[in-house]
Structures are given as C-alpha cells and as structure tokens.
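Changelog excerpt: complex records now keep ligands as SMILES alongside chain sequences, and the structure block spans every component. Example after the change:
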Amino acid sequence: MQSSQTTFLVLGGGVAAMNAAQSIRGADPDGRVVMVTNESFLPYYRPMLTKQLAKGAEPAKFLVHDESWYADKKIEVVLGSEAVSLDTSAKSVTLSDKSQWSYSKCVLAVGAECFLPPLPGISKPGVYALRKIDDFQRLRAVMEGAKTAIVVGGGALGLEAADALCAAGISVTVFENGGRLMPRQLDGDASELLSQKLESSGIHVRYEAASEEVVGDPKAEGIKLKSGETLLADLILFSTGAAANVNLAKSAGLAVERGIVVNEYLETDAADVYACGDCAQYHGVSYKLMSEAAAMGKLAGSNAAGGKGVYEFPAPPLYFSGAGTSLFAVGANGTAQGKTYEVDKTGAADGSYRALYYEDGALAGAILLGDTKASGKLEKAVQGHWSRAEVEAALR
Ligand SMILES: Cc1cc2nc3c(=O)[nH]c(=O)nc-3n(C[C@H](O)[C@H](O)[C@H](O)COP(=O)(O)OP(=O)(O)OC[C@H]3O[C@@H](n4cnc5c(N)ncnc54)[C@H](O)[C@@H]3O)c2cc1C
C-alpha cells in the first residue's frame, strides 16, 4: 500500500480507467485518485453504441456507474478535459485547460479511436464512424432521414452496426475488402452461412469490395470502389478497425508500437507509468475487447498501488448476434500459416453450423453459428487444450 500522500492520475475515461481507479481505491484507501477524460460522460459500456443504435436509448443509460459511485469511492473525475502532455521526469501531466497535475503513479487508459483508411474524401462531412456517444448521437440523427446506407468493413462491429441500421428500416450494403466476413474469427463455410443469414434479413454483402474514394461534393454521397464502380447512399459508415491512442505516450518518449508497450506487470518503460486497455500492447497483441480492458485496468490499478500481479489473458471469444442468428468463435479458424489442423464440421438443416479445429490432437478453435449453447464448454475446452475424446464427451 502507498502512503497517504500518493496521487494516482488515471488518464482516460473508459472501462480500463474505471477499473484501474476502482482497484487503486481498493488497495489504497487514502491516496488521491483522479481520473481525467476528454469525453463529457462518465465511463460507459461502449458496446451499447451498436447494440442500442436501432433502439436509441438515452446515453445516460449506458453509464457503468452514476456520479454517486465515484463520490463514495473518493474518485475525482475531471470530465471534458484532455491530457495533452506527459512529463515522466517531472512526473506531471498537462491538460487541455493548461492545468498541471503532479502524480506519484500514472495509469494510461486512453483507449483507441476508429481507424479511417486514408482515402481521398474520407474527411468529408457525411462520413461516419462509431466509437463515442457523440458519434452515436450524430448517427442517430442522420438515420432519421436515411433510406440507404453503406457500411465499409465486414468485421463484428461493422456487421452489428449494419444489423442495427437494417432494423431501423434502412437498406444496407456492406463492403468487405476481402472474401470473408470476420476473417480473423470465421472459416469460409461459417462466413458463407452468415452471409446468407444477412442477405435474408435484408443486408447485402459485397466481397472484394475495396474502397478507392469517398465521392460527393461537398458532402459524402457514396463510395467509388477500386473496380471502378460507384455506389451512392444516404449514410456512409466506416467500421475499419481501431487505432490505439499512442500520441501522448509517444511524445513523452515511451516505447510505442501499435499500442503503448507494456510488460507483464503492465508497466511502460517509464518509471511509475502503467498502461492498460485498448491503448496498451502486451506481447505484440491488443485484442481491443471489453473483457481485456477491464482485466488490464484492474491489474494496472492494483500494481500502481503497490501490487506485483502478472497479466495473463486467454485468447478471447467472439460473440455476435444479429440478422436473426447467433455466432460464437474462439481460437483457431484454420487460417494460421504453417499450422495443420484436423477439422470436424457439422451442419444442420436449420442452418446451424459447428466447426471444431484440432491441432496435435487438442482443441485449438471452435465456431458455432445458430445454436451457440455449447459456447461456454468450447471456450473452456480451447483454453484447456482438451483432447478430442474430452470434447466429444462434453458435447454429448
Ligand atoms: C461500437 C463498439 C462496440 C463494441 N462492442 C464490443 C463488444 O460487443 N464486446 C467487446 O468485448 N468489445 C466491444 N467493443 C470494444 C470495447 O468497447 C473496447 O475494447 C473498450 O471500450 C476499451 O476500453 P478502454 O477503456 O481501454 O478504452 P476506451 O473505451 O476507448 O476509453 C478511453 C477513454 O479515454 C478517453 N481519452 C482518450 N485520450 C484521452 C486523453 N488524452 N485525455 C483524456 N481522455 C482521453 C477517450 O475519449 C475514452 O473516453 C466495442 C467497441 C465499439 C467502439
């Protein structure tokens, strides 16, 4: 435990920051805990942004905790203020309002932003992305009058958004660069089946549809594809991945690759500075998922408060629900180079699909489409490297 003079500065206001602040307070009842976020909302469940896009709940409903929770825990929250520089020698942070804050321990939990590909026309008004409540509100407003939409990106978030737009009565076309939906998680058969489900719910998927330019003047009106074809739409949403917020750390001289590099204790290479959640990269990887952000936040907070816990995080599963179906995928999908898998595939007449990928006799990955009841068992089985006999017994 730190002394009562300790000041913990947690930069960011997402799930990682909230968990870090909570776990600092749990380990140190007396230290000053300050959380700084450039958003004007307390930490909220970001997945609600796609899940509530069609229904449009009030953003206040997305909050993880209300103000009283922070007050009870003596966590000071500075809203609407951006950390603009970090001086690791002086151990201080400057905010956008020019105020300076000294810290004993600093936790970087600044998350990520939507990655927009550098296409001509990408910054035109009328190009949307969905990461924050402000984006959600802008999108909800434009959805009101829209009849057609293009969603660029056939990953899980793009498809969730496409499903929500479709549920709101908008005719949606998804542009996927490659030949498969959710290419990191699905095999070709599962992608094909999901594609059929999407088509039958009214979402049209275009494969090998690489965007070349956002057309329209002055406002975005459509996308020109590399094939030369142009498709117009009332609403254009890019869902082409997330890029970690690394600039603050980079200008402070911290080691940064695609994320802020951390060791197993979630320490950066600057003394007393930790990083967690979507902005952090451990062992070259950042899954950019809620469960990872929460787990990292907890550990970064407790280590900042004097602990020495080691970060361990299993490959997280994907859950998707939309187009009248459910999908679960974990681990290998048969595409890793240089690896050989044995695969058991079953498909039911109702359109359900199951693929189990074994590597050296142990379950390395699983995909379920339609009937996902066995997801919990299969997640355990992949993490526990269960043998084929153990998996079959569990599924019987
Ligand atoms: C639309 C959407 C749906 C998703 N759905 C799922 C899902 O279903 N399941 C799942 O596991 N994951 C989902 N995710 C991913 C998940 O939301 C993220 O992994 C998680 O929110 C990361 O938490 P974080 O706290 O690390 O970062 P963030 O949530 O990005 O929070 C970082 C916060 O810090 C603020 N900030 C940034 N820079 C500064 C600065 N310099 N100073 C002050 N504040 C700053 C940001 O504005 C933000 O509020 C979804 C993401 C999105 C965008």
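The radius of gyration is 22 Å. The longest strand covers residues 362-369.
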